[in-house]
Amino acid sequence: MKIFRKKVLEKDNENIYQYILINDNDIEIKILTLGGIITDIMVPDKYGRKENVVVKWKELKDYFDDDAYTGSIIGRTAGRIADGKAEINGEEYDFNINNAGVNQLHGGKVGFNKKIWSDKHLESKNNVSLILEYRSIDGEEGYPGNLDVKVIYSLNNNNEFSIEYSAVSNRDTLVNMTNHAYFNLSGNMKSNILDHTLKIKASNVAEIREDGAPNGNIFNVENTPFDFREEKTIKKDLWEDNNQLDRGNGYDHPWILDEHNNCIKLEDEKSGRIMEVSTDSKATVIYTTNYPSNKILFNGNHLMEQGAICIETQNLPIGENNKFVEDSILLKDTEFKRKTIFKFSVTR
Question: DSSP class of residue 286?
Fold first, then answer.
């Protein structure tokens, strides 16, 4: 196991470092202290060729103005806060608006993805970890309370890459964190994800409005394009006549998980790569890159629609009329804790 740190950028007179985590199986992960951005997850295919399985922009400076949240920590809250308002213990708060003119998205105008985090690291025989910390001050993006946040990225020799989130506030507040990595198991973005197979152990999905915010309703996936309880290709039902697919321009919805161990499986048959996800979060948002960024990828191409898939493990985003807000309330002096594990393997 190895972990390295080097300075790669500077912003507003602050240094930005890149960490490289490497296990004994030669899996290599690169992470920035800017937004905790995951730029590389290098894993072998069934022929032993090591390639990047996440979206990465051509230049690291491209992340400064990235509005796609690529690879970054999302917070204080993931997803949309419908109409930019929420009640915490009977008191209504207005949050900074940055989506469709009415909602807050992914923590606001300057969310955790734009912050430079303090860093330290740990190394042992079978595990390396990057520890990132940030204090979100009272009133930041409209949120009450000083919030002390810690995110731990770890890689072990079982080819498990884990993300642990923790946070404590001095006031009742909202917290619902995730990571916005875009996965493509073909390797080095050589094809889209339409032929990837996906399995999600989830029987229910939260509906969205035209603007993408939850409307407060939940539907059962039976006999809908949203049923991934049995493995199927992402493209199989993507273009079915379905109101919810139309609203998202594809999949961009929260699945409410039935189980948490190996609850999601993504596989690319051609490369043989498999990624299995376990989480203690209540839900996962699946986003199929329905509105790709126009930035240039590291391979010189543009990201295409359905060029990658986000698996955003989280609690349910806050819907209209304060629906699901209870999933995001963090009481004063109590600890928010969540963990997601991505396990990589190959078919032979």
Answer: E
- Prior bond of 348 cis (ω within 30°): no
Given the residues 51, 140, 276, 312, select the one marked as catalytic.
312
Segment 167-171 mean pLDDT: 99
3-state secondary structure string across 139-180: CHHHCCCCEEEEEEEEEECCCEEEEEEEEEECCCEECECEEC
Strand partners, 205: 219, 255
Measured between its terminal Cα atoms, the distance across the chain in Å is: 25
The token duo for 151 is: 């995110």
Which one, of 198, 147, 197, 153, lies nearest residue 173 by Cα? 147
Q: What is the mean pLDDT of the chain?
A: 98
Q: How far, in Å, CA of 149 to CA of 136, rounded?
A: 8
Q: Three-class SS of residue 66?
A: coil
Is the link from the previous residue into 273 a cis peptide, with omega within 30 of 0? no
d(CA 209, CA 336): 28
Q: Name the amino acid, one letter, at 118.
A: S
- Whether the pLDDT of residue 336 is over 90: the answer is yes
For the question of residue 180 being annotated catalytic, the response is yes
Alpha-carbon distance of 179 to 341, in angstroms, equals: 12
Tokens describing residue 261: 């161990």
**The CATH classification of domain 2-346, taken from the options 2.30.40.10, 2.70.98.10, 1.10.1740.10, 1.10.1270.20:** 2.70.98.10
Using CA atoms, how far apart are residues 192 and 171, in angstroms rounded to an integer?
A: 44
Which pLDDT does position 325 carry in this prediction?
Answer: 98
pLDDT tens across 213-268, in order?
Answer: 999 999 999 999 999 999 999 999 999 999 999 999 999 999 999 999 999 999 99
Mean pLDDT across 27-44: 99
State the chain's maximal CA–CA distance in angstroms.
57
253 is catalytic: no
Angle (nearest 5°) at CA 164 between 41 and 46: 30
Residue 348: predicted pLDDT: 77
Please state the φ and ψ torsions of residue 243, each to the nearest 5 degrees.
-60, -40
Instruction: Pick the catalytic residue from 180, 196, 267, 276.
Output: 180
Distance CA 225, CA 236 (A): 8
Q: Give the Cα separation of 154 and 23 in Å (integer).
A: 10
Is residue 340 within 8 Å of residue 278, measured between CB atoms?
yes
